[in-house]
Model the fold of this input.
Amino acid sequence: MTTNGQPLIFEYSREGRRGHSLPELDIDKKDDLLPAALRRKKKADLPQVSELQLVRHYTALSRRNHGVDSGFYPLGSCTMKYNPKVNEDVARLPGFAHLHPYQPEGQIQGALELMYKLQRSLEAVTGMDQVTLQPAAGAHGEWTGLMLIRAFHEANGDTGRTKVIVPDSAHGTNPASAVVAGFEAVTVRSTEEGLVDLDHLRELTGDDTAALMLTNPNTLGLFERQITEMADIIHGAGGKLYYDGANSNAILGMTRPGDMGFDVVHLNLHKTFTTPHGGGGPGSGPVGVKQDLVPYLPAPVVQEKEGTFFFNWDFPASIGRVKPYYGNFGINVRAYTYIRTMGPEGLRQVSRQAVLNANYMLRRLEPYFDAPYKQHCKHEFVLSGSRQKKLGVRTLDMAKRLLDFGYHPPTIYFPINVEECLMIEPTETESKETLDEFCDAMIQIAKEAEDTPEVVQEAPHHTVLGRLDETTAARKPVLRYEKQEAVTT
Done:
C-alpha cells in the first residue's frame, strides 16, 4: 500500500531490522512488575525497520501537518495567527517551566506576580473588575461565566431565570454552554443587516431571562452598533450580559466589553493573545466579571498585599474550582509575554491591521462570490458560495480545492444562517502578499467553477489522499493498520 507513491512504514519491514538499541534488562524477569492480566500474551506486531527508515517515516508524517508556521490558516472565528517565538522562550525559562503547583507561595513569587499582572492587564483590556485565570479554554470560560451568573441570580433568590438568549449567528458553543450550565437556550434572530433584531430581543426578554450571550463584533464579522440599547433591554429585565471574547482581535485596545455594558467576559488567550491553539492542546479562557459577580469567582484568585503575592481562597460564595491547580500556567506566561511585548499602542495596532486585512480581502473577493453583507466588516467576513452552487460546485468542493494550493480552507457552512457559507479571517499577522496569493487562488477556483467545474468537484488532486467517501469515513473509520495486498492509490 502506498500514499502518493510513498510506501507505508509496514511495507519497509524486514525480519531482523532494528531502529532502537536498549540495554539488557537488569531485573529478575520472574519478579514481574505488571500483573499478568495487564501483560501481552504475544509481542506487538510492529514493523521491523532501521532507525533511518523510522526517522524518515515520522519526519514525512510531520510534513503533512498544517499550522500557522507552515502556511496561511484563514479559519473564520478562530483567529489562527502567528505565535511569536519569544513567547516560547519565556515560557521555557527554568523559573517558570520547572515550578510545581504545590510549592509554597514564598518560593513562587515570580510566577504569582506574573499571574497577578496578567489578571490586571486583562481587566484593563476588557473593562472588568476582576479576572480568574482558571478556565482552560473558551467554551470552558463560557460555562464558567454562565455558572457565575446562575450563582448570582440564585443568591438573590431569583430562581425563575431559566433562559439564556443567544443570537442565531452565535458560536455553536454558546447554546451548548448554556444548556450544560442548566439553562434553556433561546434564539434571537438577526436582521437583514446581520445584526441582532432588537424588536425580537424585546419580545424574548422577561422575568425568566438570565442572560444574553453575545459576541461583538458578531460571528458574521459585524459590529453590533446598538449594543448599549441591548444592554439596557437586558439589564432592565434584571438579566446579565455575557461577552463571548472569541472575536476580541477586532476590538483589542479600541473598545472594551465593560464599556459596552457587559457583566461577564471570557477571553481566548489561544486566539487573541498568540498562544498555541488547536490539536487538543492546552488553551486558556480567563473570565472577567463586574463587581457584583466577584464573590462567586472560582477560588483561588491571585492577589497582592504590601509587595507580596498570594492565593486568596476567601470566596465563601465561590462556584468552586473549575480547573485543577491554577489554570494552564504556561499558556498564561505566553500571553503575558505578548501583552508586554506589544504594549498598549501595539495592541491597538493589532485591531487596526486585522480589520484592514479583512476588508481588503472582502473587496477583492466580492466580485467573484456572493457577499450577503455589504457594509464594512471587522476582523473577519463571510461569503456565500450560492453562485457556484448553481453551477454544481458546492462550498465544500471549493474548500477541498484550496488544499491543492497549499492553504488550510476557511471555516465553511458556519454561521448556519448564511447559505453555502465561507467564513474568512486573515488576522493582522499576514502580509499583503499572502492575502493577495490567497485571493488569487480563490478567484481561480471561482473561475474554474464556471469553466471546468469537474476540476473543483473532484478536488483535491495533489494531497496525500484524494477525495474521500466522507460518509464511510465517518461511520466506518479504519483506526488501525491491517496488512493487505499492495495497492497504489
Notes: The chain has a mean pLDDT of 92. The radius of gyration is 26 Å.
